[in-house]
Amino acid sequence: MASVLKIDNLCVSVDEKLILKGVNLEVKQGEIHALMGPNGSGKSTLAYALMGHPKYEITDGSISIDGTNIAELEPDARARMGLFLAFQYPVTIPGVKVADFLRHAVTNVRNPVRKEGEGLIPMRDFRKELRSRMEELGIEQEFARRYLNDGFSGGEKKRMEILQLAMLRPKFAILDETDSGLDSDAVRFVSEAIARLSGPDMAIIIITHHERLLEFNKPQQTHVMLAGRVVENGDARLAHELHDQGYAGVRARHPDVAAEEEQETAAQKPAVTAAVKA
Amino acid sequence: MSTDLKTPPETEVGVGEYQYGFHDPVDKYIFTARKGIDRDIVSQISGIKNEPAWMRDFRLEALEIFFKKPLPNWGGRLTDLNFQDIHYYVRASASQEKSWEDVPEDIRRTYDRLGIPEAEKKYLAGVKAQYESEVVYGSLQEDLAKQGVIFTDTDSALRDHPELFREYFGTVIPSNDNKFAALNSAVWSGGSFIYVPKGVKIEFPLQAYFRINSENMGQFERTLIIVDEGASVHYVEGCTAPTYSSESLHSAVVEIVVKRNARCRYTTIQNWSNNVYNLVTKRAMAYGDSLMEWVDGNLGSKLTMKYPAIYLMEPGARGETLSIAFAGSGQHQDAGAKMVHCAPNTYSRIISKSISRAGGRASYRGLAKVVPGAHHCKSNVVCDALILDSASRSDTYPYIEIGENDVTIEHEASVSKISEEQMFYLMSRGLTEAEAASMIVTGFIEPLVKELPMEYAVEMNRLIELQMEGSVG
Prior knowledge:
heterodimer; A: 278 residues; alpha/beta; Rossmann fold; 2 domains; 4-stranded antiparallel beta sheet; 11 helices; 10 strands; globular; B: 473 residues; 10-stranded mixed beta sheet; 24% helix
C-alpha cells in the first residue's frame, strides 16, 4: 500500500517569528507535486520543517507518515522513515569522503533499527551499487573519493544531491530548488535524472521557479504558497500558468493574504533566508 | 597501536570510557625502587643495570641539573606533580625475550589485549615492548639484521654497541636542555635504539609499545635513532596505561639523527590514561637533503607538553610535523612543534589540528626559527582548532624568530565549531547526532590521518570515535 505524508495545519516559527501559518498538504508515494510561490512565501521553510531543522520550531499542527506523527522526531529518524530533502544549498563537510558518508547513510536508512556501532553494509556490495548509480546518472567515478561538497561547483553539488537521492531511495523526496543556479545543460541533467528515479515507490515534491523540471516530471498536483499558507491547489496547468503569468493573478484572487505578504515584506525577515543559506 | 583492538572480554567498557585502563598484579615483580628521587636511587638504577662509570656519572650530573632547574611556568599546570611520590624504576620481569611464549603470562596477556603480537605478524618489521621500566620483548626481521640494522633497547645498545652509542647519546638533547630532559637523563631506562646503515631502506614500520602498569609509576624511556646516509625508516610508538586515581609520570627523551639524503618518519599515537603526566622532549637533527617527519597524535594523558623539534642543519634538509591533539574532559594537550632553520635553503612545514570537548583544553605551541645566515628558507605553519562545546578551550601560541631577511614564513590559524547546518545536513541523511559529530571530527583530522599507514589510520579513527561517544545529546 502506498505510504501517505500528511501535513495538517502546520505552523512553524523561526526565531520566534511565525512563518508557516497552517499549511495543509497530502502526498502519496508515487505522486509528483509542484510546490510554487513567490520568494519568501514559505516553501523552503516548509521543506526544512518537514526534515526537522532545529531552528524551525513547530508551534502547531502535525506532520505524519502513515498516521505516525513525526514532528517531534530528530532529522535522522525522519530520514529512516523515508523522508529526504535535496538541499538548495548543500553543506560542505571537509575531510569526509562521499563514499564513506554515503555508506553510513545508506546503512542507517535501509536498516532503521540499526544500533550505533553495528556493522555497515558490506563494502563490496556498496561499491558496486554506488558505481552503477553513478554510471546511470553520468557522474564521474572520482566523485566518490572527493570530500563531501568540498570545492564542488554549483552544478556538482546538485548532482551530489541527486546521487544521494538515488542511493537512499526515499518514499518522499523534497527537492528544494534543485534547478536553481544551474545552466541549461545542468538543469536538463537534473530533470532527466529525477525522471529516471521517480516511480511508484517515490513521491517527489518539487520546489521550483522554473518550468523545465516540471516538463520532465509532470506534476499531478500543484500547490501555490503565499505568505505562509497554501492558497491554491491545481494540476500541471496551474504550474504552467504561474510560470507564464507570474503570481499577480494569485495575489488578486487572495487579496487578504497578498496584503499580509506586503506587510511582511515591508518589515523584512532576514532571519529566514539567513538561516537557510548559512 | 594496531588494527582491530578488541574490547577485552574481562572488562565491561562503557560509552566513551578509556579502554586500556585495566592493570596486572604487581606481586611477582623482580624489583621496585622505593618512591622518590635522590642520588641513591639514581646510583641504584645504574648499579642494577651494571652500567659503565661514565653513564653513572652522566646520570648523577643530570640529577643535579634536574634539582636546579625550576618547573616551567608556562604550558600546563605542573604544581600538583609530586616528584617524591613516584617510583622511578620498576622491573617486572628478569629478561627481554625474543618469543612471546617466554614473556611472563600476565604481561603477555596485556600485550595480547593490546593487539601487539597480531600486528607484528601482519605488518611490522620489528617490535619492542616496554613494560614499566624495561623492554620485555624484542624482535627484528632477520634480513634487516643481516643488512646491519640495529633495533634494540637502549640499555642493550649501551652494552653491545658502546662506541656508536657514545658517539650520539645526549648530543641532540643535552641533559641541561630542560628540567624533564635532565630528569630523564638521570633515571632513563629502556626505550629504542635504532641504527639504519647507509642506503638501507626499511619498508615496514618498526614499532615500540610502551605500557605503564603499576600505580605512581614513572616511565623514562630514552630513544636514539640514527639513520645513516641515504637510509630510511618509519618508527611507530604507542602508549597506554591503567587508570588510577593517583598520577603517573611519563617523561621520555627521543633523539634522532637523520644524515644526508636519509629519511625518518616517527609516528606517535599516545593514548595514556587520564592520570598520566606526559612530558616529553623529542628532537631531530636533519642533515643535507634529508627528510624528517614527526606524526604526533595525542589522545590521552592528563597533561601533555610535547613539541617535537627538527633542527635543519644543512642545505636541502626538510622537516615536517603533523600534530593531532584531542583534549577531552580533564585533559590538557599542550602540543606543537619546533622548526629551527640552521642552514640556507631548508624547508619546514607544521600542520596542527586540535579538538577540544567536554571541558578539555588543547593548545598549539610552536616555534619557527631562522638563524642569521640561513637565507632562502621556507616555513609554513597551519593550525586549525575545532571546539565542540562552550566548556572547552583552544589556544594558539605561535613563536616566530627570524634572523634573516630573505626567507618565506607563513602562519595560518583557524578556530571553528561544528555548525548546526553541518549536523542537520548529515542527520537528514540518516546519521545519528553522535555519528554526525564523529564524522565531522574525523573529517577535520582526515588530512593528517591519511598520512598514516592504513592500520594506524583505522586505529586513529577508532580512537577518535571512542573519544566522541557520549559527546552529544
